[in-house]
Amino acid sequence: MPQINLTAIVKSLPEKIEETKAMLQEMVFYSIKEKACLKYELHQSQTEPHVFIFHEIWKSREDLDLHNKQPYITGFIEKSAELLQEPVSVYITDII
């Protein structure tokens, strides 16, 4: 099975940057402990501090699907409507 390369762009409401950042950092803390997680990096834009970008690599699609069912992910999704400007943009990519 091919590994999954994923980039996710998260745009916080300006007044919710710190709360969003704390939740995203909690996701990193738990996600990197998952056996199938090969990379899970969180970046914050220097020029637009409300923009966060994840770079992730998972062993397989099944592993990513399992990751997305974890409570720290589902909890963020449930709370995201009050934290974010728009839904998270997720891109599954191939390295070229």
UniProtKB/TrEMBL annotation:
Annotated ABM domain residues: 4-92
Keywords of this entry: Monooxygenase, Oxidoreductase
Molecular function in Gene Ontology: monooxygenase activity
One Pfam family of this chain: ABM
Protein name: Antibiotic biosynthesis monooxygenase
Originating species: Flavobacterium beibuense F44-8
